[in-house]
Amino acid sequence: MTDSSNSALPEADQAGLYRFRLKDLVVGAQMLFVAFGALVLVPILTGLDPNVALFTAGIGTLLFQLITGGRVPVFLASSFAFIAPITLSTETYGLPATLSGLMAAGGFYLVLSLAIFWRGPGFLLRLLPPVVTGPVIMVIGLALAPIAVDMSTSEGETYGVGLATAIATLSLAATILTAVLARGFLRVVPILVGIVVGYGVSLPLGLVDFSPIGEAPWFSLPSFTTPEFSLPAIAFILPVAIAPAIEHFGDVLAIGSVTGQNYLRNPGVHRTLLGDGLATSFAAMLGGPPNTTYSEVTGAVALTRVFNAGVMTWAALIAVVLSFAGKLGALLRTIPLPVMGGILIVLFGTIVVVGINSLVKSGDDLLLPRNLTIVAVILVLGVGGMTVDAGAFSLEGIGLCSIVGVVLNLVLPGYQRSATNPAESPDPDPATDPAAID
Fold first, then answer.
1. What is the residue range of 234's domain?
2. pTM across the whole model
């Protein structure tokens, strides 16, 4: 299937009636399969319901397609950037309060989309250049590193640290080898391969408890949870939304480079960000994780050359249907922690590398005093877990370092792209240079 139609719905026949295309349905199921491992991984790690995540990812993708006119072939699902904030906020404020913070993050996207519609996207990239967002993304990955190590070495009732470490190592090795050596479709599903290998090895060793599957019904409503307003939780989570908002630009540019379309202009990044924000707020209203565009699916689009956004509509509808399968959610909860821990070692490390790569691509000289100061302060405050308390208001870790980085970028004089002659700088890149967009 090589249809490049931009319709978000199945193709219409000459009579104007939509006709069912089995090929679109199959390709849509494949796109969901590509996203499935990461989609359910976030709720499993943060204590949310995977079935809720499936439901909100499906509805969120449909909302995105509606807002963007069905022009962009992307699938929205659970964001890794919020794993640490959700985990820490839930422990401190509780899940309903945390959900209010996640709703506010979606609202932040809405405000940004209005500002971009009014002034264009260039101002945002000037406000939040790679020298700020790069280290913030790195902090997100580094903050999650202890979680991956703890899960990889966690003891269970029937196994010790040694066996847990061995299982984690096998899952990690399968994920890495698939990502590096595999060809074709397997190359875009390394997470699923790692889970399958780790789960398969765990079965004969007695690490899997199937009792939850037998107890779960075949059909059940997802465990929806409603948010409760909490200003401290909102203040804790809201700054984290800065980095994913900037990453959104990169994701839109990536899918545009695959399809050969300029989605920053049509439908416009203000619409794509609005769709992302509505999907995130909707997910938080029901107890799901924030949504984001998935690079795994972008890779699958590049591999299959299916540029029709309608297949993402099918993927979204299938996700909604699967969210009501009670035994599916129970099956996902039987995955042993060491299996997930091994995969997370490479996933969380990848987040760090993404931050490093954004700094490298920007061309900024990090040894210039201004850039050195911004990056150094963000990294130390974020990784060190610095906390600022003022009564019920509290800022720490990722949120605090994000705000400090933005402030330093605004108040420190003398922005310099590099230590070399500006005339020798490479051609502007829309992902890092605001001038390339304005």
1. 22-363
2. 0.67
